[in-house]
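Issue 218. Parser rejects a valid record. Input:
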Amino acid sequence: MSILGVSLPRPDAIGKVTGATRYPGDLIRPDMLHLKAVFAGRPHARIVAIDLDAALALPGVVAVFTASDVPHNAFGLIDADQPVLCADVVRFVGDKVALVVADTVEAVTEGAALVRVTYEDLPAVTDPRRALDPDAPLVHADRGTNLLERLVLRKGDAAATLASADLVLEGEFATSWQEHAYLQPEAGIAFVDEQDRVVIETAGQWLHEDRRQIAAVLRLPEDQVVVRYAAIGGAFGGREDLSIQHLLALAAWKLRRPVAMRWSREESMVGHHKRHPFHIRCRWGAMHDGRIVAADITLIADGGAYASTSAEVLKSATLFASGTYEIPNISADGSVVYTNNLPSGAFRGFGAPQAQFAAEIMVTRLAHALAIDPVEMRRLNIYQEGGIEPSQQPLPPGVSAPQVLECCIEEARARLDYGQPRPHPAPHLRRGVAIAGGIKNIGYSFGYPEQSTATVEVVGVSRVEEVIVRVGAADVGQGVHLILRQIVAETLKVPMEIVRIIAEDSSEAPDAGSASASRLTLMAGRAVKDAATKAMAAWEGPQKATVQYRPPATTGIDPVTLAGRPNYAYGYVSQAVEVEVNTLTGQVHVLRIISVHDVGKAINRQQVEGQIEGCLAQAVGYALTEQFQMRDGKVLTPHFSTYLLPTSMDMPTEIYPVILELADPNGPFGARGMAEMPLVPLAPAIAAAIHDAVGVWVTEQPMTPERVLKAIRGRG
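Output the parser choked on:
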């Protein structure tokens, strides 16, 4: 009997509930030295002098490292533009200037406070819209510009078509930073083992990439560095960049003693990257019959002080600036710039939520202006199989946007009375319903190297006694290890109990790529399935097979033709929401959500539903409550008391996850990734539902009570 689609229980659930599971912070032992980084605390300054004498004189302090102690003082996931410890200039408040090592937490905390740094403050640029002005301060003087990346897409002739369209609407939108807020802040340990290897045990999203960067920092061969992951309490893109891993490795390598580091929540909030804020200006044109004929869109993203994944996020946002719609004429111009704000990087959705916040609102506004039902507007313009992307190329096969939309409309009519008059519980409480859709790539894009490698060993002589799966896929809480075991068990027709996975040690598991871009079910799943099939092809006893799976190739955008094939697979989502707006306070309460997804094949149905529900909690926070604020380069919301995560009281009482299974041609058993998709359309769906309730548009996210109330009062 097939185990695909069966809601098998999570094998890690009991340990997490009882507290037996060991997260990185639980690995710290009494005999370890403790580390603490000295943050710059200012957005832009020249380091004049660093005085370590008082810190080194403190009893218990073992060492204080500065930039001169780092063999190769640069790191970065794509562009190594960030110093491990700053030597001459600090570029944001979370830059590190020194690393203190002591034998107790108390001593290291006091020692860090005794490090005296003399700064000469420099002009800071904190508004991304001003970063490209001729007189703007340069974040990286050696680059000669604050422009980090620009992407231009052209399809047809948007300018000429807008000039002849029956209706043209303009819009301006702003989105903000978002904190990943994973369960455990950054923590880990490091030591030098008996083979003279530097071993780092921590949490992350990509074992082999962490190892590559750490080895480069220490100027060591990669096989002399081992990265191991303990239990990972969430990631959402926030653990893609190095945070403390390289600091742990540096101290352990220098001192030849075990070391430990654990950030406080405030250090985490200031020290790691955030979701990119975007400013989007656009003009959309349509004909009287509802056909959207042109869109002209300009996007500016705040990349913060260092590159991180900004270039790739910008590409995705620019590509998705026209949403899930077949628009014959598109002009999209995206830029991401350096500023002296916190670095921006990967976050669940990777640019798609910001871009489609604007796109989905514009589609609904066009529908209203043309007196067309917004769902009919979407039906008329939505991508179909063979549709042409803004990059002038056909969409990857498996375009299920129409089916997802139709299912959402049907569910909304049945559960939310979509299209019917809406009762209001009190004069000051108004209810509204709306639908929005979304698209998000699965896997790496724009020619970034994409692969996943797995080894499957089948043990036994007359029968299969054990199956050992080696695949370096990080389980960041999404349950991918169980998914991969189910795929192997189904492929080999063996009991789940005999399938064992080795995935958390870079020296034992091959590179499966990052736990990002909703890619592991498709990519690592395909690799383990193919390896299992190969191992059993001529099985008469113990067999082992290694397979590297590569999906259809993607390309960058040609600088002349502006054409390219950016992705090999997409996920599609449609959502319907019902909200209640308090016209006296501006408070918005989400009452019900329907979230419809094509997952290709639900390997474990319970985990798919869990991803939808969990992602919606994060999406509600992004849309309404999570206002990460900075002023003049300084963080104003470094605690959960001021950065407001949604609580159970903010969540809807009814969530309906709806799963469609329209097989993806690349995925194992047709499965495609989906964990990011619920975040893409929820904010514009809520914005449209607010408009349905009170007749105003809120185009700045998060849609806080102050902003909603201002819009209501502005309407009079």
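Fixed in the parser; the record now loads. The longest strand covers residues 292-304.
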